[in-house]
Specification:
The structure holds two protein chains of two kinds.
Chain A lengths: L1 E6 L14 E2 L6 E2 L4 E2 L7 E4 L8 E7 L6 E8 L9 H18 L5 E2 L2 E4 L9 E6 L9 E13 L2 E15 L21 H10 L6 H13 L4 E3 L15 H10 L3 E3 L1 H14 L4 E11 L2 E2 L11 E2 L2 E10 L7 E3 L5 E2 L9 E2 L2 E4 L8 H5 E3 L3 E2 L10
Parallel strand pairs in A: 5-12, 13-14
Antiparallel strand pairs in A: 1-4, 1-6, 2-3, 6-10, 7-9, 7-11, 8-10, 11-12, 15-18, 15-23, 15-24, 16-17, 18-19, 19-22, 20-21
Helix pairs in contact in A: 3-5
Chain B lengths: L3 H6 L2 H6 L5 E6 L12 E7 L7 E9 L2 E12 L3 H13 L7 E2 L7 E4 L7 E6 L2 E7 L7 H13 L10 E3 L11 E6 L9 E7 L1 E6 L2 E6 L3 E10 L6 E9 L6
Antiparallel strand pairs in B: 1-11, 2-3, 3-4, 4-8, 5-6, 6-7, 7-8, 9-10, 10-13, 11-14, 12-13, 14-15
Classes of the chains: A alpha+beta, B alpha+beta.
Chain lengths: 383, 250
Amino acid sequence: MRVEEVHFNHDTGAASADALNIRVNAAGTSIVAPEWKRGLPSQPAAYAAAALGAQVTIKARFSGGPSDGAHRIRAIDAWVPPATPAGCLGWLTQWLAQLLHALFGNVLGNTDARTVTFDAAGNSGLETFTLLNHKLKTSGVGIRTTDWKWQYRHGSHWHDFDTTQHKIYLVLDMPQAPWNQNPAGNNLQLPWTDALDRACSWALGVTTKDAAAERITVAVNTQSNQSYTPSTMFLDSATGAYKLTSYLTQINGGAPFKLNCTDCADAVTTFSNLLGCDLFEGRFFNMQTKPFLTLNGNPATATDWVTWNWSYHEICWLHQIGQNELTYDGCLQLDLSNTAGTHVAQHPVKMPFGMSAPNDYRFRLVQSGPATLASTTSRRLVK
Amino acid sequence: MADDQVRVKYDIDGLLKRIPPYQAEFFTGFVPTAEHLQGWRRTVREREPETNDRAQLRTVWDDPRDPASRILIDIIACASAADAVEMLATMLENNQLERVLDGPGGLGLVSFMHPPYAPPAVYFVYGNLSVLLASFGSKPADVVPVARQLSARMEERPAVREPTLSLSTPENIVAAGRELALDYKATYPGGEDAYWKFVVTNGTVVRREGGLRLKPFASGEVRVESYLIEPGRPPQFGQLSLRVGDSVRP
């Protein structure tokens, strides 16, 4: 007997009991079930934790079964802890293995056991299985691999008959714009696995949206191969879209590259909202700044503390733009020092924009100028 | 379209008036190649899907002797020279600097550049092309000489006069100010680094709905020269002369 197909996103109209609609990147088409099909490379699936209801199901199809017969079938976690030596080293090895399994291993749990019927040729229909003991709602953001051992029951014993492996992305909630879940056509705004690879790594293990947005902000700010320029590098001037493909090419390539505040705001919003956060990009205009730590700067390097005269600066806003709203800025670190000649670098994460209070973003960044807030925000489409 | 403040700051309406209605250079598929950028190695080539009115190409060039030195070149081929100026305005609007400085002379219709305290970058418009060259690596790269090399190649007219390109219009009436379709065809298709250049005298060329349109300026003769240029291959040439006011076909 063999597993022929496993379907995770078996209902493209909802994500309360199954996986999200996703695609790999701007090229190609969306990933459609079955994500696992015998003889083909396995495709990943993604789940939005907060959207999931009481039951999460998958579907599977089998061949080589008993002609016009039936079997009880289930899938269980194939992972077994490695054999370990005795003593402290053994304990440590065991602990490390458990930790790695918790971080990167099975998040789908097991399936329930179903009676699967087979036709005369030994093929089954598409059977629905419910996940048991899954950790999709509690594990937090991550990229995990589930190895399932498929078993059928004979008498009182379960017998292994096949194994499958599945790459599973887990985000906190339904991806927000620019991402959407419209399965129709060649929709570039379906979540990209190329972007999930980054976002889920940067926010690995977090269980709240605040923590996710913070991790993304810090990660965007501290990529080691980037530096600042005032020109926008990843905005399509013709359409207003965010050139996410081009940005991923640069951060994945490793060679040094440049970007500005708009690019950082696009990155923070796009990656955070992919995990279920609710950020927007928004500008404020005309200012001379106080000293701040430049993009990817080293707080101990005096020349990395810079000032600029800007016609605008673009940051991320939680929910909406406004003087009393909360901000994230992946382009710089503020100086929170109150002592002349010293610097205290601080990533602007969920800071009130404010005006003149010591912990206001505006107070810490703007030396002079109106810093007039734009009246609108955006969530630029990705391409 | 860029907002009013940006249009005033960079005198975009004044720049639009500098576009001559009686001559034009127009490109389709312009690609910077290693021939244009001697000493640099192209490591990124990202071509956006072409739309009816524009084509975008991003290339990144690395200095083989110094991996920290890189230059990004964005070229947006617009539907017309006026559209290229509008595109430039949008690009300037998305520059954080309080003001982007006037660029070096002799670089297309107009150019702008970063001040010396910012990482080098230069913007210019040549024909229907809106171009950005920016120092992209961790070490500042002098982009102005590269921009000049690129501009010189845009300006170049290959010394070939044996027509091998087909250049024609299917329309019968040629009148000043009246657009007519301009058809062009090469004897063999170009490769991915091939591009077309059109030089128009007494008129302009614009792109509409995916095709080219010739717009004669005044009575007399409107003349179009076209070149298909590709590294490693002899350039191809074609020409078309029409009496403005006459019938094209008997």
